[in-house]
Specification:
Blueprint: H1 2-15, H2 17-44, E1 57-66, E2 69-73, H3 80-87, E3 91-100, E4 105-108, E5 111-114, E6 119-122, H4 124-129, E7 134-136, E8 148-152, H5 153-159, H6 165-168, E9 172-175, E10 179-187, E11 200-203, H7 204-208, H8 213-216, E12 228-234, H9 240-253, E13 261-268, H10 287-314, H11 316-328, H12 333-365, H13 382-408, H14 412-416, H15 427-460, E14 470-474, H16 482-493, E15 498-504, E16 515-521, E17 526-535, H17 540-543, E18 548-551, E19 563-566, H18 567-572, E20 585-586, E21 589-595, E22 610-613, E23 622-627, H19 635-651, E24 660-661, H20 662-668, H21 671-705, H22 707-715, H23 720-754, H24 765-792, H25 795-800
Parallel strand pairs: 6-11, 8-10, 17-22, 19-21
Antiparallel strand pairs: 1-2, 1-12, 1-13, 3-6, 3-12, 4-5, 4-9, 7-10, 8-11, 9-10, 14-23, 14-24, 15-23, 16-17, 18-21, 19-22, 20-21
Helix pairs in contact: 1-12, 2-10, 2-12, 2-13, 2-21, 10-13, 10-15, 10-21, 11-13, 12-13, 15-21, 15-23, 15-24, 16-19, 21-24, 23-24
Length: 802
Amino acid sequence: MFKNYLLVSFRNIWRNKAFSLINIMGLAVGINAALVVYLMVHYENSFDKFHKDSDRIYRVVSHIYFTGDSVRSAGVSVPVAAAMRENIPAVETAAPFFINDITNRIAIAGKEFRSKEVIIYADKDYFSLIQYKWLSGSPQTSLQQPFTVVLTESRAHTYFPGLSPLDVIGKEIVYDDSIHTTVSGVVSDLQGNSDFKFNEFVSIATVYGSGLKQYYVSSGWDNISSSTQLLVKLKSTVDMAKVTAQLSMLGNQHKGEGNSRTVMQLQPFSDIHFNTDYPDYINHADLKQLYALSLVALALLVLAGINFINLTTAQASRRARETGIRKSMGGTFQQLMLQFLGETFMLTLLASLTALMVAPLLLMFFKSFLPDGLSDTTLYTWPVLLFLLGLSIVVTLLAGIYPALVLARFQPVAVLKGQINAAGGKVWLRKTLTISQFMVAQFFIIATLIVSKQIHYSLNKDMGFRKDAIITVATPYYNVQYNLRNTLQEKIRTIPEVAMVSMGGQTPAMDGSMSNIFIYKDGKKEIAQNVEMRYGDTAYVQVYQLKILAGRNLKKSDTVSEWVLNEKATKAFGFKDPRGILGVIINNHPVVGVVSDFNTRSVHTEIPAMALTSSAAEQHRIMHVLLRNPGKGGMVWSHAITKIEKAWKEVYPRDEFKYEFLDKTIENLYTSEQQTARLLNWCAGLAFFISALGLLGLVIFTTNQRTREIGIRKVLGATVWQMVSLLTLDFMKLVVIAFVLAIPLSWWVIHHWLESFVYRTAMSWWIFAIGGAVMAILALATISVKTIRAAWSNPVNALRSE
């Protein structure tokens, strides 16, 4: 019997090749989307699941609160680790480590390597939590002494090719020409996905015994950096509420002066990969994006299911006689249901196989949305194949159950007498499903237009400073020969294609924050305010064309000696008139000027209180270069960059020259939004593709059903235009209804998305009008593929066939 079912299913699929192909293509798109999302979710959920006792491991994080604002940090102050060991009995292991992101050059036996991955400073406690397999050396002793380093097996092969883990022991590695270390151990690489896949572990004692101490170690409890992190492992039977209370008490005991306070909390190990509240080195999984992608995949799958239901029920009349004969010959309802569901399953299985073959191409197109470690090699594994099989069964039941019921319920007497609905199924249901399809597609089109409009607004908004024709060149962080920076600045200043150069810290707008607590005492009360910091010389204001509202620019200085505030900071300290704050002493230095507000981050965030100041040489490490007119074909800029690189090589011959245009830096602030726009483009295209397939199938079926009517109308004098209008009107009504229903849905969803921007574009009426026009044109083009051909057909052929 099974063989017979299979044979009949194959024959019916082959006999209706056009409709079968439409169904397979639509289902393949939906299944492909579901497959990609499954791969992403499975990949992201696999991080750090293999560590022993991971449910007892936590990262200590900091919440810093001050007047009217708060900051979250993935780091803690340096003394916290020792204090937790001594004062909180529930702590079984405390493993502090410093993240090294300043090393630029690594020298081994005369060969130089560029550090492309983060190095950490750690001790034996780190290896008791993040457990590696030791190939040489010992976790107890390898990082006990200063100036020792442990390598992973892959890094050891890179540095010392051909040597065994035992032979690597004792080899020298020099970091940034100053830190001479000896290899004391080699561990195997972590096999699972992890956010703690470091490849070099320098002993933490090295920090305390070298010049690195000034970068990482501070005894103050208020000095918190995300590069100073702490993992702790609690004992198996502990009261978390009690531990949290003890941690809070510990913070209160070491509360510094001022109005700020720091609250330390325990972040579960399993939360680290998904929690983006704490800025750090980790490529976090964005749960909101995963949910959004899941909804998109579900929507595309539903659209494909709607296609199947519509086309199958529309063709029901063609199979009514088959059903009647089967029933009259003793076929049961259950047997017919099994037959029709079997056909659906076969189509779905073919769609799944098609999806599996096309998936590598889809992964390539969606590479910018996918995690770096996700590749097409994961496609051909048992979990993926089982997922596709399960999805095929689910789709078969959800999409096939109603068409199967329609087909199996035909009564043999009515069928054989020709007393059945020629349209097959309920027409109102088919129209409702078609409207739903186009409503989803219309939503994606409108959303794409509005997101693109917001991105255009963000990139072209006046941010309060000049952002064109400016490049930034960061000098080597580790190099403490600050006079070399002055030399480079002078060399760049003499280049004819350069209009001006400033040496300072970060650009006016940046990804992240850099702030300080400013305290102002007016005699009656004390005002503490978190203030965003920017460092620059006297040319900084001129390069970026910041508008001075009151007072003057900074004077030349190599220390913090005076402040230039923005309007927001002036008002935060209680001064409505910018001139009123001039001369006021804040944090032991006078305010000498006020500049107009400018965006320091993306338009997601409000303009903060900001202070500009000169500083010590270590803060002035970036060259801000204003170029002259680009000239024809950008030749002036090209010559300028070439000459700047030449000057760089004269000053830093062993370091790599890098530069970035400021407008490109600002564009990178909206990477997430640009990815969203690209995703919506794909979603709109795929949603319309599936909907158009279904619409095309219905148009083909309808025109085939009305072949005789078309012939009679043409014989009676109907024109081609009249016939096209007749065949098109009913379908275009559905598209118009879908547009009307999509407007409130689109407005509600996009309105909530736009609320994440402090500065945002307006949802103009013409966006909806353009979206509707685009959908109408595309739908009309789809319908015309068949209707024009039917209208042009010779009526004699249609009537002769009758």
